[in-house]
Amino acid sequence: MHYIGRFAPSPTGPLHAGSLVAALASWLDARAHNGQWLVRIEDVDTPRCIPGADQLILQQLATCGLVPDAPVMWQSQRGDAYQAALDTLIAKGWVYPCGCSRKEIEDAQALMGHTRQRHSAAVYPGTCRDGLNGKTARAWRLNVQRVIDELRLATPLTWQDRLLGLQQQDVAEEVGDFVLRRADGLWAYQLAVVVDDAAQGITHIVRGEDLTDNTARQIVLQRALGLATPSYMHTPLVLGENGEKLSKQNGATAFDVSHPLKALQTAAQVLGLHKPNDGASMAQALAEWTKAWQEMISPVPR
């Protein structure tokens, strides 16, 4: 089985130390298995995207010797593919329009005695599942339980993470009917990612541990669309001084492209890889880390 991996940054700013870890891990895994490494610019959330950040990200990657093996894909050019996927689900009766605002969802959960966990969205209570009841349609949601029932999917859904081991989640109970097209008309991350991974033939996904929670709902959506499920690996995060994940939202700055090997060494250490031999060039360091990655990571599932 040919390996195709990817790195999929959002152009909301330049790559920082944390995103370089994810880029390096995905690149090393592809190289360690003689596979292809692709880059996809996830600019579907246009209000958050910064003009020119996509080209800056590609330049940062190239400076570090991380060059994709095929033309870059931009999600902003993929609207027709997302609409086709949504139409497929509409035809199956597996999605429905929703008229609820975020506040209405949180209020409904509060009335049920449920509290929202920090950094997580409130579980949708299914208010519009059987009709809008006079509301104006705002978004489209996947009817998770119907998909699970009609496709006879296991509950909870389980999957094997190559680094974290066996994972599980009851998507209907812990997530609810998640959004595929947002109230503002933009495509939701979950739909775009699933459709694009399939279009690019992605067989193995290596990404940050903060995205682990997305995996189960993406697998449900893959099943609903009749798409293959890639192998998953979630890598350690870089934390800021406040203990939170290092991110553009909490002020993470771009890594220093004037010293790319130093930036790569810092990222490699997060991944458990040692400093390369003294005097090693960037290409030699990447080759050393690729060999070390082969020895450190369990074989790719087949």
Strand order of the biggest β-sheet: 1-2-3
Residue runs with pLDDT of under 50 for 5 or more positions: none
Q: What letter string, H or E per element, gives the SSE order? A: EHEHEHEHEHEEHEHEHEHH
Helix content: 25-40%
Number of E strands:
10
> Roughly what is the average pLDDT, rounded to an integer?
90
Strand content: 5-15%
Form type: elongated
If you compute it from the alpha carbons, what radius of gyration comes out, rounded to the nearest whole angstrom? 20 Å
Give the CA-CA distance, first to last residue. Answer: 7 Å
Structural class: alpha/beta
Tally of helical segments: 10
- How would you sum up the major sheet? 3 strands, parallel
Describe the structure.
The protein is α/β, with parallel strands linked by helices. 37% of the residues lie in helices and 14% in strands. It has 10 helices and 10 strands. The protein has helices at residues 17-32, 53-63, 79-92, 102-111, 144-151, 171-174, 189-199, 215-225, 260-270, 282-296; strands at 4-7, 36-41, 73-74, 95-98, 139-142, 157-161, 165-169, 179-181, 204-208, 231-235. The strands form 4 sheets. Strands 1-2-3 form a 3-stranded parallel β-sheet. It has a 3-stranded antiparallel β-sheet with strand order 4-5-8. Strands 6-7 form a two-stranded antiparallel ribbon. Strand 1, helix 1 (17-32) and strand 2 (36-41) form a beta-alpha-beta unit. Helix 1 (17-32) packs across helix 10 (282-296) and helix 7 (189-199) crosses helix 8. The longest helix has 16 residues, at 17-32. The relative contact order is 0.18.
